[in-house]
Fold this sequence. Notes:
By secondary structure, the protein is α/β, with parallel strands linked by helices. The chain is 24% helix and 13% strand.
Amino acid sequence: xxxxxxxxxxxxxxxxxxxxxxxxxxxxDVYRGVYTEFFAWEQEECRRTIISLRTTNPKMLLSPRVSxxxxxxxxxPVEGAEKFYFDDLVDDSNSxxxxxxxxxxxxxxxxxxxxxxxxxxxxxxxxxxQDYMLPFVPYxxxxxxxxxxxxxxxxxxAWQEEFNDPDMEEIxxxxxxxxxxxxxxxxxxxxxxxxxxxxxxITNSSGLLWDTTQRDPLIWPGAQFSNLDRLPxxxxxxxxxxxxxxxxxxNTFCPNLNCLHTFCSLHAGKADVPYVISxxxxxxxxxxxxxxxxxxxxxxxxxxxxxxxxxxxCFKLQEFDSRENNLLESSPWSNPDDIxxxxxxxxxxxxxxxxxxxxxxxxxxxxxFIYRSRLLPDEKIQENISYNSPSPSEIVLPEFVSTSVLGxxxxxxxxxxxxxxxxxxxxxxxxxxxxxxxxxxxxxxSLDCPIRWKGCKCGMRKKSSGHCETEKCPxxxxxxxxxPELCVKCDARGRHKKKKCLNNxxxxxxxxxxxxxxxxxxxxxxxxxxxxxxxxxxxxVGELISKESTSMAAFDxxxxxxxxxxIFDLDMAYVLDSAIFGNETRYLNHSEDANCCATVVNVNGVxxxxxxxxxxxxxxxxxxxxxxxxxxxxxxxTES
Length: 640
């Protein structure tokens, strides 16, 4: 009888109460049994799988319709051509003589040397693990490569790092399952207290139970043919706290307009959205959580407001004496979830009138007012109002840093969004104000913050097919693309079909097609249509790497060996490397008389490199960049 059958037979029996020591002994026996059972099956399964890959010895099978007789070639032999003999291996008695036929083939040029890359449409953040952990040694068999100088920049290899053994995960998962559904009914906390299993559940997206669901389940008899129930793979906290629910999801959601999806690696920790490590056990990178909003409307001012009563039970029609404003005796709510829901809503919109809150909470208006007064007493609200900080009208605007000039790298890097108490000012510790940066859409300051970027108000022009095409547009003049949320007049969102904003090509992906073929040096990029001056031909994308990264020295060794590099300066803090990830813009060759240049544009708070024509370019003309003096290594490159 196996372990599952014995456990199933005991399910209806009264379990014996075990102390911790007895639970530990019982769990060790179950763990050991699953371990032995698994590897006994795995050994036989591996042997069977390997045998199934074996092939039989090949045999020569000749069709009876195939003739083995020699048939002379119809091609006329060249005089003086070399002759050779060949034997019929089927019948050793046959031997034939033939002349070598020489045919002159047309000459063809070999394909220029090039290095492939993974195509991407948007830059990606380089994993910080690669700064100290090396997955493999490149060019290990090349005696010219300076391998030791390259290895000095890393502390260890990737295979030296501990990893989660999928076999052990399967064994532990099955052992936990048998403990949970055993007659002794272990809890997940009991399993964690044992100390020899991985933590069963750390959060709703980490722990042993979660990890085993992130790969295909292993089909083996001990787990698949068991009569026990399956362990729950999902864990969602059923809470009425709407603030907690939103905070859980917002921690993994990238709010940058260039992304708007979860688990973004590009903006985490830099550019426009900071990250925090909120869970040391799982090491999960999460975006900055939202802070509860501060109430500025007192309960007394709500009573005196000019809002029309919502009905007979409206708070404005009720009389509240000082004792009832202690607010528990007047109208108690028996269900604590009702209070939790109201508290969560007030953390998001604390100044919402009780009339609206009553509809959301499905409670009488005056009762909602009573509990709001309890959760947000006027004394606490007065503290928020009387915070000693200058009003927005009193703030002296700083001299903002310049953004970019065509063809030059900006002398600043976008900051992470500010998050502080009070208006953006030096007194509040706002780093946007201190560094003379405009606040971005993801800053947690007020929407009417005086140092927020205001966008443009370019309207429709009758004599043009679009707008925002000249330096008269403040966004274009500041080397910024129009913001679809701010630049409403120019229709940056693209709602209208007739006339469109001409300063959002990067966001819309409106680039000119180019062809990659043999160029002046190796492969090159060619225009597939006539291009005017100032046309964006594409965005230079790659891996985003900090200039302070320790792997930059490793790149120097590697690119010295190759005689080329794909690194572009993005700003004062970051570079873009298109060696591993990139697109067709990496193939533009160098020329002192270049017809294109690279410029950095601020797109929704993130710097992005685009290649722009500096002169008119004819169709099928090769596109060139001036790499600059800092590009050249000891050996001249053979490919852009």
